[in-house]
């Protein structure tokens, strides 16, 4: 059983994690959908705010939204 456990842990590349880290990872995958949805909404709100601010205060600057894909930071 230990060999099967180790094989599974290594297959998802978390062999370095502690038991608490593994439990946290499992919980995030099982129970984190609502939190992730809220995070995405929050980040979208930040992008909307920055776009609005730039449009109203510094219209010469544009956001490069495709470059921002998958990154919570902002590229101007």
TrEMBL record:
Cofactor(s) the record lists: pyridoxal 5'-phosphate
Record keywords, A-Z: Pyridoxal phosphate
Gene3D superfamilies: Aspartate Aminotransferase, domain 1, Type I PLP-dependent aspartate aminotransferase-like (Major domain)
Keyword Manganese annotated: no
One annotated GO molecular function: catalytic activity
UniProt cross-references to InterPro entries, sorted A to Z: Class-II_PLP-Dep_Aminotrans, PyrdxlP-dep_Trfase, PyrdxlP-dep_Trfase_major, PyrdxlP-dep_Trfase_small
Name of the protein in question: Uncharacterized protein
Source organism of the structure: Peribacillus butanolivorans
């Amino acid at each position: 059983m230990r060999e099967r456990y180790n094989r599974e842990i290594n297959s998802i590349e978390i062999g370095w994690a502690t038991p608490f880290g593994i439990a946290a990872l499992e919980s995030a995958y099982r129970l984190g959908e609502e939190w992730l949805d809220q995070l995405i909404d929050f980040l979208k709100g930040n992008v909307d705010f920055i776009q609005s601010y730039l449009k109203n205060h510094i219209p010469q600057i544009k956001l490069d939204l495709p470059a921002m894909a998958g990154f919570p930071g902002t590229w101007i």
